[in-house]
Structures are given as structure tokens and as C-alpha cells.
Amino acid sequence: MNADQTKNLVDETWSSSIVPALEQYIRIPNQSPLFDPDWRRNGHMHQAVALARAWVESQEIRGLKLEIHELDGRTPVIFMEIDGDASSTVLMYGHLDKQPAMVGWEEGLGPWTPVLRGEKLYGRGGADDGYAIFATIAAIRTIQQQGVPHSRIVVLVECCEESGSVDLPAYIELLADRIGTPRLVICLDSGCGNYEQLWMTTSLRGSIVGNLTVEVLTEGVHSGDASGIVPSSFRIIRAILDRLEDAQTGRIIPEWLHVAIPEKRLEEAKATARVLGNETWSKFPYIEGMQPVTKDPLEALLNRTWRPMLAYIGQAGLPDLLQGGNVLRPKTAIKLSLRIPPSLDATNLEKNLKGLLESNPPYGARVTFEAEKGGAGWVAPEIAPWLAESVERASQAYFGKEAMTFGEGGSIPFMGMLGARYPEAQFLVTGVLGPQSNAHGPNEFLHVGYAKKLTACVAQVLSDEATSR
Ligand SMILES: [Zn+2]
Question: What does pLDDT average to over the chain?
Fold first, then answer.
């Protein structure tokens, strides 16, 4: 493969075709079903699928078969097969569903308003993970245009990732024979430590999201009348949360939620800490005077990749500040997002958390924990020499810098499922979620310059995969 030619082809496809398509995609509020239970009637999901399909079909990929599957009651998937050397299969993955809008977008920006500023394309879902199907097809097109051989490729694009990929196992079953046994899995839904080199993810945390509810009364009452007699549901929830998280340090208390960090991953985190330094913690938009949990880059990396951590992501039972009257409220509910270590067995997680949070309720309050979504994390298998060489070659060719491997703090449920199903497969898990890109938050952007280079790197790896056997 000719690096200059690859670069030119990829740049041209991105500038003339992918960016305009992503601008259309950003305008579609196709939130994941968990955030838009009425998604089918609202029609945004089908609109996003139709947009991606039309774009793919305009790319004149040789040997492409594209199908939309939609099992009863489930979100659709786009499934593609691209003819190639059938003695090997590469499985490529992405998703089209999005996180909700979230507040706090800067003046002039918004979740459903694409804005291109320099290299950055702002808007919800461009980087997480709308760009993936476009980058995937652009990479395949580039190698086909150069007459470079590739293996048989299957592409699976789902619409349920941000809801825990609950619909995906049914499609894996449905399409198992068509998928075959992948030798390489390429996932473009992960992150990068900076925008200067290729980053390969070696672990993802698992997660569980669920609602913790404490109920004390059948209706709210005057707080001057009841406080001191009726226990506050908020105080009870604080006491219960103290079983899970040390409020002073943020450390997760139950030992069964921790794992011993493998020596190899510790060494890797040290190498990442040397490259990223203070950027590990300084990249976040702190307010004036705010301090991070730690300023030690290694500790920061281990906290975000190998240790369990809790975030409070929603609530019910509390009026907003304007409407908050002097009332002792009947209930408080908090939506918890617990990230768990990559190698932690998540089999009984929900049951164990229920036990921890619901047992011995203070004052006999009604305490419930209901999980909404969740799944185990993922740890990369030992990287095969051909893939390590290929990734390094790609990073040198398109970034002029060495490739890095690192652990990621986020979760991609499908990787855990695939790792268990195809233990022999190699994984290139990578992505564009770098500093400030802010997937899930306000001001999400796709770094177009980085995405172009990443696309070229994917083309390189596809080509190397076919010649490495
Ligand atoms: Zn994603």
C-alpha cells in the first residue's frame, strides 16, 4: 500500500463526503432506546440507519452486500459482508445510537447542530460513534482503489450500544454463520490519549447503571412539622451510599469490586503516564480553584482504567431549585453509574449490589436498587506480533510517531461479548475520543484531522492482516 496515495484518498473522502454526511447525522436526535423509549415512533433511529445505508451504497465498494436486520421488538442493525480472501475474516464494529443531549453546550453549539470549527466537528454522536461506519467503509474503499488485497470483511453496526447493547446478542446468534470466526476485530468506538499518534486500547472497564430509591412517606409533608421525627430519605440514601463509596476519597469500599492490577498493565500505565504526564488530569474543564482526586499521572490512569469508581448521573424525587418548597419529601432516587475493573467477573454483580444496598434499611425505609444496564469489561488478548508490527507501521506512516497501547476507562459491552465468544481473535480497539472530545457531555466534537489519520491506519492494518498469513 502506498502511504501517500492512501493519505490523499482518505483525506479526499473525508473532506468531500464524510464530513457533509456526518453533519446530516448530527442533526438526527437518534438517542439510544434507554433515553428515547418511543424511538420507533419518533423515527430518528431509522432515519440515521437510512442515511448511513445510502452513503455506504454510494461508495461503490466491490463485493459489498448490505442488509438491515430488525428483529421483533429490537433496534435495527446494519450488517455488511464484503468479499475478500475467504480464508480469513475481519469483523468491524460501530454504533449509530447516541447519548442524550445533556446541558451545558457553549453558545453557538448544540447537540443536534453540526458546527465545524477548524479541525473539530461539534455535535452529539459524531465522535461516539457515528463516524465509525464512514471511516470503516472509507478504509476499505481506499485499499480497493489501490488494488491491495484484503480478507473477507463483515461489518456490524448496532443501534443499542448506549443502552448496554442489550439487543446485540440476538443478532450475533442470528448472524453467527454469516459472521464466521473472525481473526481480527476492529472497533472504532474507543479513545486516544492524544491526537498525535495511534492509540490501541488494551482494556475497557465494565459498568453497571441502576437506580437506588429510598421511600419513607406516602406523600410529602411540612418539613417544619416532620423533620426530626420522619427520617429524611436523602439522609438515608447518604448512609446507604457509604456502604459502597468512601465519601472522603471516592474509593469503592467492597473488596469484591476490586481486582489485582496485572503487572503487564501496570507497566503499560507507567509508559502511558510518561507520554501523557499531567494531561491525564489537567484535560478536564475544572472551575477555578478545583483540584483533581490525584495529580500523580500513574494513579490517575489506574483510577480511570483499573479501579471501580462511582458517578451519580440522575435523580428523581427532588424538585428543581425554583420549585423546592419546605417539604420533607416522600422519596429520593439516584441513578448510579458504577465502573468496574476490566477483568472483574460481573456475573452476580446486580445481585451483590442489591444485597449491599437493600439489606438492613435504616428505620425500615423501602430501599430498592434496580439495574438498568451493565456488563463485564474487556481485556485484550496477548497482541500477535503481526498486529503489533502493523499498528506501529501505521502510526509511523500516518502520524510520524510511535503507536501506544493503553487502558480505557469507558465501556463497550460488545467487546466483552466478543472476547468470550472468539478467544482466538485479535482486537484493534481504537477511536477518536481524545482530550476535550467530551463524548456523552456537552460540546462533544470529532477531531476530523485525527479521524482521517486513523482511517488511513485502519486501511494499513486491513492490508497487513491479509498479507500476514
Ligand atoms: Zn460509543
Answer: 97
